[in-house]
Amino acid sequence: MLGQWLGAAVEPSEDDAPPAVEDPQPVEVPGRADALAGADAVAYRTTFPDPRESEATRATLVLEGLYGRASVWHDGELLGEHDAYFEPARFEFEPSADNEVIVECRRPTDGFGGVHETDLLPETGRVPGIWWDARIETHGPVALVDLSVTPTLGEDRATIEAELTVDAAEAVDERATLSLRPEGFRGGAAMERARVQAAAGERVTVTREIEVRDPQFWWPRDLGSQHRYEVTAKLDGAERSATTGFCTVALDDDGLVVNGQRARARGINVLPSDDPEADVAAVADANANLVRAHAHVPSPSFREACDEAGLLVWQDLPLTGDVDVDPERGAELADALVGACRSSPCVAIYGVRDDPEAPFDQPLGSGRIARSRLRWRAWRTSYDRSVDDEIAASFDTDRPVVPVTGPPGTGADAATLYPGWDYGRADDVDRLLDRYPGLGDVVAEFGAGSVLDRDDVEPTAELAERLDADDPAATQREQARTLKRVGEGLRRRDADVLAAFALRDVRPAGGMGVLDAGGHEKPAYGALADAYEPVQAVLDAAPSPGAVGVSVVNDAAEPVEATVEWTAGDRSGSFEVTVEPLASESAGGLKVPTDADEVVLEATVDGERVTNTYRL
């Protein structure tokens, strides 16, 4: 229904009048207007004919992913404002024969821009605008504006609370039907009715609990099936549906517990992407069962894909770095975020602030002196987390909330660990965890960067300073070794949650991704996938000529009896080992000959074989 969009950088409007849109150019909406990169305020304009079939039909402009401090005008009249991009912006309007809509988006100034207000993303990835959807909805006198569903598990009763918001252009006194049905599995359907009374021009919200008999859990992949339930509301010819599922999550001193069962989470951080469904598939294919939305909120399609794929979601507030924020504004956004995610069973953890301090923004190198510098920087780093704790306390959710994610020295609740990149070597992961007990329980980030062989683009200054851009293949091999060694080391040390950084490069010349910006695999992707096999045989140290231990890690809920066969050059052998659930067990040792090119471990459990290859 909406026509071609035009966009331009503008001087922000200072009153209720729309900004002057001078020299506009065609832009893709929804999406990011690359040509407007760097602008602090952007206006988008479109025209369209009357979308209604009759004058009795009502029209609503819906904008999703409306990033920044936004104001919206229709035919010169201010419809309203919006400042939380992860909530849909809905504006009812009276169409004319020829309609004009202008949307002004300014960069946020409240500190809650997250990664979109950092140089972690290129300017083209953070242009204020309408990122996810722009549409006109037409409806009759009675409109179902929203259907929110919240699953609740009691001691002896399971319910889904349906909250239905109705906008009535004319008086209504009817009963809405709320039907429940399982998606793709056998289970008890149910139906309830809720009386809706509203005067003409009134908006009302009604709630009704739907009891679920014999509720089935939604499980992360490898632990069970992803059972979900669809609730459909109908009233006066209007209809709206929502999907949810039952999943409980706890994270405490005893570790991660999902649906009352101890579990381990192996994850990957994702940054904003134009193809969230492809990102979810790539995370799942890497043997991960968790994805962290790093300091931003992805589109609803991302959570829907995670629900289907069985990926737990660590969902951050859009807050990163040492920026001053108002805790009341933080509480307001926390409430909006929980409201947006409440129905998604995949959302397992909420994060408040990412990396409040950067004590290791300059790499330290390796060796004894570097280790002393690491201890010194961690010791002298201090951070006042009181605002983050206040915001964390405001989350109205039964999910765990992580107030601070950060490097050693910040007193963080979840660690960012970069041995082999910011300091030391990847093999220092064990020494680091010995030095800082508990640091490896919940690890929100680990990883390393690499560059690509591209003649048309240059790597960022940071990558160029750290890496040899003349030998891209060597940087990619080292990235793969680092992620593999640190990931396996964390698993051997019984990390409850770990997440590599990051899935995809955001620039074409390279970055921290295990995929390049186009989604193609780097060597690190396969290395991480091997390290993330739920049951895997791993070396206890980086492979080199000489003796090295072998362990088997088991993220399954049951004990496993594994046979481990190994080959190193012209030598080979095998071990038998039993590993308890969510544990690691030494399987034995091997000796790598000086002329070996690689070490291959092959673990067999119940006839299934998993291979892990180390190149020297």
Regions with pLDDT < 50 over 5+ consecutive residues? Answer: none
- Give the overall shape, derived from the CA principal axes: globular
> If you compute it from the alpha carbons, what radius of gyration comes out, rounded to the nearest whole angstrom?
26 Å
Which sheet architecture does the biggest sheet show?
Answer: 8 strands, parallel, barrel
Could you tell me the mean pLDDT?
Answer: 93
Summarize the amount of helix as a percent range. Answer: 10-25%
Please report the number of helical segments: 9
Structure keywords:
8-stranded parallel β-barrel; single chain
What do you see in this structure?
Helices cover 16% and strands 40% of the residues. The protein is globular, with a radius of gyration of 26 Å. By secondary structure, it is of the alpha+beta class. It has nine helices and 36 strands. A hairpin with a 2-residue loop joins β17 (249-252) and β18. The model has no long low-confidence stretch (mean pLDDT 93). α1 (276-285) runs parallel beside α2 and α8 runs parallel beside α9. It has an eight-stranded parallel β-barrel, surrounded by four helices. A six-stranded antiparallel sheet has the order 2-1-3-8-5-6, with no helix packed on it. It has a four-stranded antiparallel sheet with strand order 13-12-15-16, with no helix packed on it.
